[in-house]
């Protein structure tokens, strides 16, 4: 008799456990979203460099060159707050001596990347380019990017689309499985990120830009940046 009672107790316990597992079932789905944006920001970057055999003199020359170029922009009506120089480095330079058959000291080189970050509709973009092209003999890059305003504006849209994508997937799965989608159990959000950038038309040397400028009057018309794809993901779990 005791064996029968124990067996019945085990059966009841198993049924209760099964019911609890069924009630606590969850479905977890990842929602994804992408949005394409045409970059509004332009960065003109000039890599200033000077070289000298004396360390102190090299450092002073770099600062003087930077101050002179910044003054040139300001004198031509470029907003001073657009001009940024965020790093400054000096390194020892070596060269190979064929007679000694080894590397020998060849002075010091100071480098300061100077950047002017503007919007595509900034009326003095062409003037900035002309000043660089005509007065600065240094490596030069021009690139496009998303402004902070663009990133902030698209953030809410990315989240809305990702949540909807996750819900659509969850509803399709539960419908196919013959169960009902319950309340949300948890949400994990992945921050927005760039998954595709522009092609090589974005990063052009001053030489290639100059050739195109011969037939076009506006730097923003010559260069047409491709769209940048922003993406995010969100993981949502629902009770069943």
UniProtKB/TrEMBL annotation:
Residue runs in coiled coils: none
Keyword Signal: yes
Signal peptide location: 1-19
BP terms from Gene Ontology: DNA damage response
PANTHER family associated with the record: SLR1258 PROTEIN
Name the record gives this protein: SIMPL domain-containing protein
Domain of life: Bacteria
InterPro entries for the chain: 26kDa_periplasmic_antigen, SIMPL/DUF541
Keywords for the protein's UniProt record, in alphabetical order: Signal
């Amino acid at each position: 008799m005791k064996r029968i009672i124990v067996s019945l107790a085990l059966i009841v316990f198993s049924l209760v456990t099964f019911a609890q597992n069924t009630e606590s079932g969850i479905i977890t789905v990842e929602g994804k979203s992408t949005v394409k944006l045409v970059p509004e920001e332009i960065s003109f970057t000039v890599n200033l460099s000077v070289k000298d055999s004396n360390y102190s003199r090299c450092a002073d020359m770099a600062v003087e060159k930077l101050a002179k170029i910044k003054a040139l922009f300001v004198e031509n009506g470029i907003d001073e707050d657009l001009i940024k120089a965020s790093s400054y480095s000096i390194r020892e330079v070596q060269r190979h001596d064929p007679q000694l058959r080894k590397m020998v000291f060849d002075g010091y080189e100071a480098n300061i990347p100077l950047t002017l970050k503007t919007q595509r509709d900034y009326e003095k973009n062409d003037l900035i380019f002309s000043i660089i092209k005509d007065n600065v003999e240094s490596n030069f890059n021009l690139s496009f990017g998303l402004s902070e305003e663009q990133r902030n504006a698209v953030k809410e849209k990315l989240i809305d689309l990702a949540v909807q994508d996750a819900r659509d997937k969850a509803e399709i799965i539960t419908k196919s499985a013959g169960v009902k989608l319950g309340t949300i159990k948890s949400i994990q959000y992945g921050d927005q990120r760039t998954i595709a950038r522009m092609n090589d038309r974005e990063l052009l040397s001053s030489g290639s830009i100059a050739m195109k400028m011969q037939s076009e009057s506006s730097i923003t018309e010559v260069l047409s940046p491709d769209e940048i794809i922003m993406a995010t993901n969100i993981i949502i779990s629902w009770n069943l």
